[in-house]
Amino acid sequence: MTKLLGVMGDPIAHSLSPLIHNGWIRELGYNATYEAMHVRAADFPSALSTLAKRDVLGVNVTLPHKTAALEVASVASKAAQKIGAANTLTYRGNAEWTAENTDAPGFLKALGPINPLTEHVVILGAGGSARAILHALVNRGVRVTLLNRTVSKAEDLAASLGDRKTAYGDITSYTEYLDSATIVINTTSMGYSGDILSLPSGGSRRFFDISYGKISARQLDHAKLQGWETQDGLSMLVAQAAFSFEIWFGEVPDIETGLARCRRAMEAIG
Q1: Do 184 and 120 meet the contact criterion of CB atoms below 8 Å apart?
Q2: Is 66 annotated in the active site?
Q3: Rounded to whole angstroms, what are the CA distances from 175 to 85, 87, 202?
Q4: What pTM value is reported for the model?
Q5: CA distance 78 to 246
Q6: Average model confidence (pLDDT) across the chain
Q7: How far apart are CA 5 and CA 248, in angstroms?
Q8: Pairing state of beta strands 56-61 and 88-93?
Q9: Is the predicted pLDDT of residue 270 greater than 70, yes or no?
Q10: Residues 6 or more apart whose Cβ sits within 8 Å of residue 140
Q11: Share of residues in the chain with pLDDT > 90 (%)
Q12: Nearest CA among 92, 68, 94, 91 for reference residue 80
């Protein structure tokens, strides 16, 4: 019987996850299908109950369900518990789910090699993605500074997931923090409204925007002009998907083929 997988969110029509996963399923010859599932927040528990009656293997969850996914799980990984959110659910049978968070390892895979002795990472924003990224970096021993418009939110995040090296501040004063940064991670939603942060000279330092496509284009174009080495969020999206795939099928798919599919799809969209 064909196993069912999918991604649940609201909105969800824009998701590239079906393209990524169904490509891997075909490449590796599994009898499964991966679908986009539009589920409103109020309907999340009932949607999981419906899936439990089908031959479901697991689901990814995106906004606004990552906290709820952790809450409904009967078993959760230590990382998901620490971060306070899950993006991957695996069906255990008997209406029970296991929760994992693959955003953190997906980010590290996308970021590539880092030296905790020399790196100073500045994270812009303190939302859900910033939580997973901070957790990943702190576990690697990297010094991190969190900047957010609501400073108390950055302070709370630093206290809950940071270590003694973790600092925080007001994003409106971000230029004061960038001189010492070796990597800047933009997790803010400014790109959705077309806004950008004016950056100083990058000097070949790294600027990673976790958005992609038109949302991140203006910010990344500006960063390139200022001499930053830029990276968008597609690599993180595909890497976290690969770790979810490994949880469900027991093998890591080819990340590069998944990324190539996404790049072609984005080019076609324009």
Answers
A1: no
A2: yes
A3: 30, 33, 12
A4: 0.94
A5: 18
A6: 96
A7: 9
A8: antiparallel
A9: no
A10: 108, 114, 116
A11: 92
A12: 68
Distance between CA atoms of 17 and 36, rounded to whole angstroms? 8
Which residue reads 């007001």 in tokens?
A: 170
Extract the tokens encoding 64. Answer: 């606004």
- Name the active-site residue from 66, 109, 153, 165: 66
Instruction: Give the tokens for residue 248.
Output: 């469900």
Please, which pLDDT band fits residue 194 given cuts at 50, 70 and 90? confident
Distance of CA 249 to the CA centre of its chain: 21
- 246-268 per-position pLDDT tens digit: 999 999 999 999 999 999 998 88
* Residue 258 to residue 235: CA distance in whole angstroms: 9
Q: What region does 127 belong to: left with phi over 0, alpha with psi -120 to 50, or beta?
A: beta
Q: Which residue has the tokens 């108390």?
A: 152
Quick one: tokens of 33?
């299908």
Would you say 237 and 209 are in contact if contact means Cβ atoms under 8 Å apart? no
pLDDT of residue 123: 98
